[in-house]
Every structure is written in structure tokens, then in C-alpha cells.
Amino acid sequence: MGYFRWGIGLAQAMLEGFVLSRQQTHNQGKFELCYWLKTEQGAVKAIVEGEQPVFFIRESERSTAQMRLNKASIKIRFSDIPLKHFDQESMVACYSDSVRTFHQAKQVLNSHIRLYEEDIRHCDRFLMERFIRGSTWVKGQVVKRDGYTLLRGAQFKANNHYKPVFSVLSLDIECDGDGVLFSVGLVSNSHKCVIMIGDPITDDVKASANTNYIVWANDEFALLQTLIEKVKFFDPDIIIGWNVIEFDFVILVERAQMLGVVLLLGKDEQPITIYKGNYVRVLVPGRVVIDGIDTLKNATYHFDSFRLSNVAEKVLGERKLIEQDDRLEEIIRQFNEDKLSLAAYNLKDCELVLAIFYKLNLIDFAIARSALTGLELERMGGSVAAFTNLYLPYLHRSGYVAPNLAEHGLNFESPGGYVMESKPGLYKNVVVLDFKSLYPSIIRTFLVDPMGLVEGLLNPEEAIKGFNQGYFSLKAHYLPNIVAQLAGARQQAKQDEDLMLSQAIKIIMNSLYGVLGSKGCRFYDPRLASSITLRGHEIMQTTKRVIENHGFEVIYGDTDSTFVKLPQTWTLEKCKATACNLVHEIDAFWRQYCESNFQLISYLEIEFETLYHTFFMPTIRGQVTGSKKRYVGETYVNNEAELVFKGMESVRSDWTEIAKKYQKEIVKALFDGKDLLRITKGYIEAVRSGEVDGLLLYSKRLGKDLEQYVKNIPPHVKAAKEQMKIDKNCRYRKGSIIKYYMTKSGPRVKLERGGLDYEHYIEKQIYPILMMMPDYKNVLFQLTAQKKFSF
């Protein structure tokens, strides 16, 4: 929705839209903020004038700062403001007319003066302080441009209702190991093309109608120029890809720079910009670049490998057109000998990425996350930045400036989540009771809050006592209210069946403790973090006693989950009814506890999560002590028995398929009372005979580049280095998945016929799993017994 009003001079427009990109720019020497928006009226470029970048210093350091800036001839405007530090000292705002002056001032002062909030870009601060998160109202003076509307003198206001519909373009490049481009694929809902270097193929058979999507280019220079034209034609709001930010766009920019091409991919033919720091940022004015891998991880999807081939097969049931391990070698061969096949491969990758995004609603997730946090659509991770975006505007309105890292001077570590010593064994009828969003509920119930800690320490008589000398104000706080708003929004999202919004809210809520417990967050204070985790310990231990007072045994507890053993003769119906009754009793206990001890409302809520009719908690391998975070249970799903593995080898990507298959079968045998010896002997014989060679592949990701491994080189790195000696076209980088076999010559990427070290697999993949089973010693003895003994 929006309207245009004509008056004297330029037209005035009031529009609602969604922020696509943000920049700090200069126009004729004046500092401006530039925001591109998606609106129902088309693309809008909104220019905000009259803003000034700002940071803060302490009042006691004003004169020193003025002296140093004057000496360096740097013009900064000092302004008295009604803001103070957490230690109650008054603060001073320092304004500059340009980004250049802003950074010069920071450089001059940084070693001598404590600067505050100097790391916040003003284009972010402008939106943050107005509570603008994705969608917004904007008004300004209209200047018509080719393909978009320019709004000068723009003014913004929060809008929580506008939901954009974005045009999406999937992009993928093919190149050699040195980044020399072969082709670029582009696919949208309505168009597709592959820009391929080479001469047009005129052979009637090869150049059939299904290859008319190929656009031929003489060389890389022509390819990049064609790419600019095609992106303008597709005119996407969002460009997606697989590792598209750190690979595809980095390669494109590097090749463009080498060839003297300016990549004008922005909405108004503005160049693309790459920023490299702790992570790579791609700025395409008026467009957003979103990576599929990062988005999947942030949406908490789990795959044993995030390679496109694996995700496409798991999500879509489709495969890439080149799947062999020496993929780069095949790509180079196809470019030299079979360009039509390479074009089809390039196009298919683009189509797979687009299909994954739509099948899993990843664009909806990115929109929901941006609308909740105010972060850019493409910004993945960034929990600390999201917390700052949410919290800082409230803090300023209460008269505080955010502190710098570790200014509290405390260096003790806050403990992690509560993990109870397990009681290993094989059980019948184990119910799992989970506290819903335990840490957010603790924050909300016990008023844990950064500003609340400051105010609570100033007025402990009007505060609730936390842990490690922490006190939290009963009245001055914001985080509990933020949690309450998120919880209410999630409940509404569930009712509306908006799964992506619900998931985005869940992730943000669960990240709040992690942020407060992160030393990289300006609000980190061990009293905050420990007042959450230690309260969690108290809640879990007390809940255990409540359950035991009802006559039941607790065999394990982990962070927010409690495992309760019920009588093995009970029916499933009686177990479920008892679990529901325990939920009612526990919730009632905490309501009464919080009211009588703190005069607080309890938002702690436990729920009956699972009933395992058979449950196995192993010991630590080779010991009698119970393990932690590792168990397997059998439950009924749609009236069919299903094994659920947690923390076991069968759900870990760095164990072989033979180990996973063996563990599932031997656990099932244990639950069914079958012979473990027979099953184990069968697997050992299958390994030694060579009939399961295809299941002996290890898979491990490179945590860093190969050359950084110097000491204690792990097997997957040895395999990668050996393969690169053999195949000069082979390239492995940080993040690459190395698949290898253990041969008699050591770890190798290629399977050597007859050269596999079968005894290694038996000792490292079969026996360790067997040794977690009850009575494993008897089975192991029979497997390894010798014919002769001496006493």
C-alpha cells in the first residue's frame, strides 16, 4: 500500500516496503544514508539526509579528547546527552559530518580514550533506534528514475505488517582450480540461461532446441559483460546460491578486477562490493545475496553433509549431474570436450538450489528473522548483533549507553547447563519430561537483564537475588519483556501455522542465553550467565526431588530434560497418564515456589515429550560409569516402533556406514533379546570378506586449510594431501568434506582394491560399539578366544 501526493514542487510519497540493502554514502560532500526497499510500487531508493555518525565517550575524558582531536585538526561536535555508563558516569556524544572524519577521530582517540558504541554503523543505528525491522513506512520527495523510484529527504517509521514477495535468482559459476571462469548459470521462476565461454555449437544434433538457454561468450571479459546484462534483465530482489557469498561472488569480483571489468550488478547499475573480515559480506545495491548453506544452518536444519549433492538428494530426491569425487577434473574435461554437458550441469545446480529454497521456505525464514531482529536479510549467524539490535534502543531510552567488553572486571567462568550423572542400564518405560524454553523462561521468571543487574546492584532491596552476587531489579528491565513478546509471537505463529516464523522465534529465544554467556557480547557479565545456568541447575535438581517424592526414579537429566523410570509392567496408557500427572504437579510446584519465595509469577513450564517403552543408557566405553548425552530408546510413532539415537555413533557423520548399520542392528537385537554374538560375528566376517567395502568410507570436514595442519595431522588431512600429490587438479579448502578409506598404506581418498585395512575397521568401528553393550565382555571373549591358554 502507498500513495503519492502532488503539491508545489516535487511529489510527496508515502509507501510501505521492506529494506533490501543499506549504505552510508557521500553526495557532494554531505553524509547520506541510502536504503533500497521492495514495495508494491516497485524498487525504491530512499535517501536520508542530515544524519551524523556518532560514538560516545565519558564526560571525564572530554577535555583529553578535544585536545587530541584539535591537535590532529579533526572536527568533531561534542554534545551533552542524558545518557550514562553502567557505572553511572555521564556520557558525551561525539558527532561527525562524514564517515571519513568519524574513522579519523576513532583512530586518533582509540589508544587513549574509551569509545562506546563506535562499532555500530549509522545506517544500522538509524533503523535500530526507530524499531524498524525489515518492513517500514517511508515518505519523501519523489524523483522518477529508470526502473526505480528515488525518494529524497526520506523519513522512516516502523511497520510490522508489510510482507514482501521477492523475485529470486539462483546463480552458480563453474571454473577451474585457479578461479578462471568457464560459465555462469542463472535461473529464476520464469527464465533460465547459462553464459558459456566458447564458440556456438552449430551441429544440428548437438545444438537441439533444448540448448537454446546457452548464451555464448568469446572470453571471460565477454562473459562478465553478459552477466551484467542478464542480471539487469532478470532484475532480482534476491540472488541465491550454494556457498555463493564466499565462493561464487568472491571469484566473480576477483576475475572482474583482474580483467578491468566493473561489475555493475546493482539496481541502478551500481557496482558490487566485497568486504572481507571475520566473514565475507557482499553488497549489491538494491539486491540481497543469500547463501543456502548458511541459511539452512541458521534455520537449524541438520545434514551429515551440506554439500549440494547431499542436500538435494535428501530434500528433493534429485542428484547433481556430476557426482564423482574428482568433480573438478570432470568439469575441466567437459569444458574442453563437452560444453553442452557442462552447461546442463551448471543449469541443474541452479535449479536444485532454487528448488531447495522453495521446498524448505528458506526465503520466508530469512524474512521472518529479519523482521524479528532488524538484521539484514542476508546476515546469518549474528546472534550478538541481533541481541544488540533488539536491546540497545530500549537501553538508550532508559538513559544508558552500552558498555564495552569486560568492563565489569570479573573473570570467573559461569557454569554450563546441568547434566546429571546417569544410571546406565537397559530399561522399560522411561518418560522424558522437558522444560519448554528453559533459559528464556528463567530470564522471564527471575527478571535476568543487563540493565536490571545494574539497577538491582544499586537498589538490592528492590531486587531479586541471582547468583554470584547478582541482583536483578524488580522494575527496571527489558529482556524479560522481550522474551514475553517473542513467546506470545511464537504462540500466534503456531496458531497461524506459520512454521518459518515460529522456527525463527524459537532460534532467537534460545540464543539469548548464549549471547549473554558470550565474551564477544558487550553485555556479557558472568553474573548474568551464571544466574541463568545456576538457576537451571537448581530447577533441575529440585524437579528431580519433586518426582522422587512421588515415588519414581530419575535415571538421567540434561540441561532441561528429565528421564523418569516407571514400573516396567505398566501399560503405555498408564505411563502416559502418569507423565501428564507429573507435568501438572511440577508446574504447580514451581508456581507456588516462585510466589512464596520471590513473589514472582512462574513462567516455567514442563511438558511430556516422549515415552520410551525400551531405553538403553550405555556406560562410558570400557567403564562402569554411565555416559552423558548418549542414549537410545524405542518409541512408537504412528503405532510403529522407531529407534531414537542421541549422541551415538549412528547419528555422527564421522563414523562409517558399517558402524552405523551395526549399531542400529545390535541395539535392536539387545531390545528384542536376540543373540549379540551372532550378529557381531556376521559383521566381522562381512568386513573381512570384502563384501561391505562400500560401507567403509570415512567422512570428515576440513576445519582449516591444509597447510595449517602442521602437528598431529589427522587421517582425513593425510588422505587429502596424498590425493593432491596424485591428482594435480584436486583442490581442498577449509570446509571441504574429505571422504577416505583406511588402507594398509594409510588413509586414502581412492579405494585400493585388496588394500583395505580390515582389522582397523573391526577394532575401531565394530568393537567400540560392542563395548557399550551390557555383558560385552562375554561376547568379546568369545570373539577373541584363543585355542590354547597357559596358567
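Next protein, fold it too.
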Amino acid sequence: MMYALLTLALGLVVVALAMRFFLLSWFPYLHYDLINFLRIFRFHWLFSAYAKKKPFYTILDRFLEQVQRSPEKPFVLFEDERHTYADADRLSNRVAWSLLRHVGVRAGDTVALLLTNEPFYVWMFLGLAKVGCAAALLNSNLRSQSLLHCFSCSGARVLVASLLPALKNAVQEVLPTLREKNVIVFVLAEECDTEGMESLLDKVHTASEEPVSTSYRSHITIQSPALYIYTSGTTGLPKAALINHSKIWRYSVLLRLVGVTSDDVIYIFLPLYHASGFFIGLTGIIERGGTLLLKSKFSASQFWDDCRKYNVTVIQYIGEIIRYLCNQPKKPNDRDHKVRFAIGNGIREDTWSEFLQRHGNIWITECYGGTENNVGFINYTGKIGASGRVSFIHKLFTLHAVVKYDAENYEPLRDFRGFCVKVPSGETGLLLLRITKAFSFEGYAGNLQQTEKKKLRDVFKKGDLYFNTGDLVKIDKEGFIYFQDRIGDTFRWKGENVATTEVTDVMLRVNCINEANVYGVKVPGNDGRTGMAAIVLKKGHEFDSVDTYKIVTSYLPSYARPRFLRIQNSFAVTETYKQIKIKLVEEGFDPSVIRDLLYFLDNNKKNYSPLGEDIYNSIRHGIIRL
């Protein structure tokens, strides 16, 4: 009897091992898919419960729950400051009461924030949420007309700005227009003597710390606007992507899905006005109940020292960040840290491998998504080089499609029936995301035209609706997504999307320039593409390098400024008078190929200086950094 039982047990073990071997051989990522499915299923179960609560259970309610659960746990670390969850609750109460009693906001209002990374950014977001208001997160690089445009399209009637000279000056530049529109402007200061601007910190410091009644936010539903986050899109001025409370939850759950816990400390240096910094960092760590290390800006030389000092376990990145870290001089303590997770997007395959070899066993989770995207993808397997994975969940709900793209006409190819054509596995195509009630696209505030432009109708059958990502990708036979390029009049530099039409408008402010054709070019050793402009001078004018530099640096953020200029007699255009960029992009900024006069943006001389072979080689070899 015993012998029979042992034989049976041994047989079951052999069968189990054989099945495991079979599954791993034929379905090597099945266990990853199952774990991801269970995590998503659990979140949707929780989200269904949140949605049924009256009023709707928001990320603020999650924060207040964390306050009750762990009041003395560190929430925000910043320089030498240490703020617990209870501290954040009290400070955001002060902000809320000052907004109600001194600023005069009402439930349902929108308040625009022009701030840099600092703890007060967090208190402002929480305070606004407590009084039922939405926040418009303005890019702190915006100036002049771009700043006014972004402020206005959110519908805000209050602007809160940092006291930093650059930001205060940016507000003062547009202050006459804001005053004409009866906008109330506050600066983070104890006092302010500028007419038309008021101090806010003095009001916050004297405000009550008592909890704010939930009646102020009783109107909040799953579809209520919570944030406006700005994206340059493919053309024109930045657009305000409307983020409702449902979408905040979809973003904030990402850290849960990749295995981050309440014991983790996440390092955030990306600006909080970006979706990446705000959701993966702030609201993501609120959902987890962990700790946020907030940095005002990225420093490659201080990065690992910060990680060791604050016991960081999770880091966020964009592709360039990992490369910057790899470019730092090697040190004996490169593996002396507690970082176990890295999460972000845009890392190159070679950089990925180099980073792991140098800094040890860090699990890198590459994600694909966008501020306004309704569907995202996660490479939860750690497969080097992939931007995401199409799991059986995506396939089950048919949430995406990759279709053939007409690069000449900037639109998807359609067959004789008028429907789009899917590309085979492994081929590059345009990524479309299906729009449904559960995976909705909220669009852009005050910009119906751009909202409709991102929608594609009758894609595979009459009546269906898809979101046009504007991204070219390929998906291999195993279901891994690989980002290839962006389409349209957009290039990406320093982690920012740059709309060429906006840059062109600024270039045409220069007195000597008659026409401008802006595009992105590859620079050896750098991710993305940096800005270059081919220009045609006005008749009878010579190129004014100083005035051009002055206009470009005054009206454009640093990442959008053309690093190279090419002076031409005329532009090649299509039969419909569209500027042709393909050849210009291919030729780049190589003076041995280009016979036109070339210039580069010279910050030392504060002008555009001639670009010759010596400068070109210095840029190619990284001696001159862009």
C-alpha cells in the first residue's frame, strides 16, 4: 500500500514537472500574465466598490484613509524636510480653509498652479480636492501667450504661482491681461507689494487646521473633472487634457500593479505638472500608503547619494534619465543601494542592459501610455527593450489595433470598403486604442476641434470609435510592444513633446525671418530628436543671430528651442503647399552634407554661432552637450 502511494506521489510530481516544463516552453510568460491579471481583477473589484460609494470614493478619500491608518508615517521627504501623513492632512486643511475664506473659491471651481516641485504643491492639490475644486497643472516653462492660452482653456479664475523670480516674472508679463479678465493671482509669499498680486502663505499660516466638511465635495462623481494636465499634442499650442476622477484611479493603480507596497520609498524628480510625476509619483504613492522623496530637479551626480540617504526603493525615469545615470563616472559603490524597482518609459535596449550590469538586480518596468490615452500597456515581464505587453486581457476586450499608415498624407490607410487595415505581427503601424464606456477619452478642455481630431470613426466597422495615439509601434508574435516613432509635426526632446507649429510661430516673430520649417533631428548619444529649423530670410535682410537668440529664449522653453538653424533660399513644398521635411530630417545638421549656412544655439555667446566641422564633431562626440 505504502509502495503504491509513493509511486502515485512520484508520478504526480513527474507529471507536474512535465506540465511546468511544457508551459514554460510554450508559454514562457504565462505566470507573469496570470499575476498581472489577478492584480488587475482585484483593482477592478475594488474600483467597483469605490464607484458605488456615495459620494464617490476619490484618491483624496484614500489619502485620508492612510492618515487614519498611519498618521506618523513619513509621506513627503524634501531636502531636510520630513512630513508625515498627519502633517500633510493638517497643512492641506490650512490650504483648504485659506482657499475658502481668503481666495473665495467655490466647489466646482478650477485653480491653476504655476509651481515647481516642492511640498506645497502637494498641499495645494490636497487642499483643492478637500473643497471640491479641480487643479490646472501649468508647465512652469510656459511663457507669454502660451501661458495665457493654457490658463484660459482650463476655465480657471484663480492662479497660484511660485515666488521664484523666473515664475513671478512670467506672471507679471501677462498680469495686465489676467487683470482684464478679473483673475485673482496669488504668490507663495508672506507678503507681496506687486499691484494685482496677493500673498498666500500668510493666509495659509494663520488658517485653521480643523478638518474640512465633506459637504464641499459632495457633488463629486466618477466623471467630475479633477485635473487639467497639458500636452503639446501633434500641432499648435499645448492642450489641456481633462482628467476625471475615474482616470486618476486608472493612473494611480499602476504602482499597485507592478508590486509596489506601503513599505516603499519612491524617488520623484520629474515635474509634478507632468502626468508621469504626478500620477506615478504622488497619487500612486498615496494609493499605496508609501513615502515620496520629492526633488526639485534631477541631478545625475547626486542621484545615487540621494537614494542611499533616503533609503529609496523605487525610482521613476524617462529614457534619457537612465542614460544620464549610465554616463556618470563609475564608482565602487554603484551597487550600494536599496532600489529594487524602476518604472517609466523610453529606455533604450542598450541602456537598459548597461544599467542593470552596473547597478545590480533592479526590476525595470517599462510602460506605454500618454496623458490623454484611454488604454495603456505594461511590460511586467522585465523583457529588455519592450515598451509593454499585450496580455490576453487586451485581446479579450479588443482594446487596441495596429494599422497601416500613410506617411505622406499623415493618416491611416483604408481599403476599398473604407476600413483600416491591420498590420501583421512584427510590422510597424499606427497604434489605435478603442474608445468604450469603460475606457473613455475625455478630450481637451475648450478644444472640441482637437478632441475630435484624435478620434477615428468607422475603423473596422460602421460605428466603432478609436483613439489615434499618433505613435508608430510594432507588436511581435509574443505580444510585446516596441515603440518606433511619433508621427505628425511633433518630436520629443528631453522628455518633452515639442509641437513644431508652436516653435514656427515663435521663429516668425524674428524680424529677419520670412519662413520657418521646424523639425527634429537625431544627435549621436542622445535620445529623441532635438529641434532644428530651416529658415528663409526676408528680402533685403541679413541673419540677425542675436535677435533670433533673444526671441527664441524669451518665448520658448529650453527643450523646444531649435539647437540648429539652416538658412535656405526657398522651401520645397508638395502640390498642396505642405512643407517637405523628410529630406531635411535625413540630412540633419552635418556641414559636410549641407551646403546651406548652418548655425547652432550658443548659450555662452548668447547668439546663434556658425556651425562648422569642428563644432559639429564636438557635438557628435559629446564634447559640446545639448
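About the second fold: Residues 426 and 476 are 5 Å apart (CA to CA).
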